[in-house]
Amino acid sequence: MRIDVPEGTDPLTHVWGRMVPGIGPAAAGFAQSVYEHGTLGLREFEAARLRIAQLNGCLFCQDWRTERDGVTVEDAFADAVTDWHTTEAFDERTRLAAEYAERFALDHHGLDDEFWTRFKTVYTDREVVELTMCLGSWIAFGRLNRVLGLDEACVLPGHLSSR
Q1: C-alpha 105: how far from chain center
Q2: What is the pLDDT of residue 12?
Q3: How far is Cα 25 from Cα 155, in angstroms, rounded to an integer?
Q4: Span 20-37, mean pLDDT?
């Protein structure tokens, strides 16, 4: 990790809850709201979330799978997200969610009229705003975790062997 965390203290709790008390808990609340109050379907939500996780390089975020009512995406879903351009595993909404996530993260100035025409044929304005807020959360907080090394201290079992 790139910051000092007191011995015996959970790094996530320390950084997100204690280090900057005027900001950390509010940021954690925003990050949690994306999961608690989101209305997007699980597949498009996870396609966008996982694409950001892959681009951020956050180990914890890449291992995480959102669960809704006991349901998660299939094991091969992350590979399909990587290959969102060509995979046959995605419907149009899911493919566009992955595309939007990638373009939002890497080339937001390149989101042209052609993209918006395609995007808005399957997403409502409300869904566009919701997904955009989710993307902002995942980019900011996934990168915070990765840059500070928190993702290495708090990884799920899938990446333990790669450390």
Answers
A1: 11
A2: 87
A3: 21
A4: 95
Name which residue leads in pLDDT, 151 or 112.
112
Alpha-carbon distances, residue 154 vs 1, 4, 157 (angstroms) = 11, 15, 10
Looking at residue 155, its pLDDT comes to: 55
Query: Under a CB-based contact definition with an 8 Å cutoff, are residues 25 and 17 in contact?
Result: yes
**Domain layout of the chain by residue ranges:** 40-162
Q: Which fold has domain 40-162?
A: AhpD-like (1.20.1290)
Rg (Cα) of the chain, in Å, rounded? 16
Phi/psi at 80 (5° precision): -65, -35
User: CB of 34 within 8 A of CB of 137?
Assistant: yes
Give strand pairing partners of 71. 68
What is the reported pLDDT for 78? 97
Which tokens belong to 28?
A: 């954690």
Q: What is the mean pLDDT of residues 93-101?
A: 98
Chain centroid to CA 61: 7
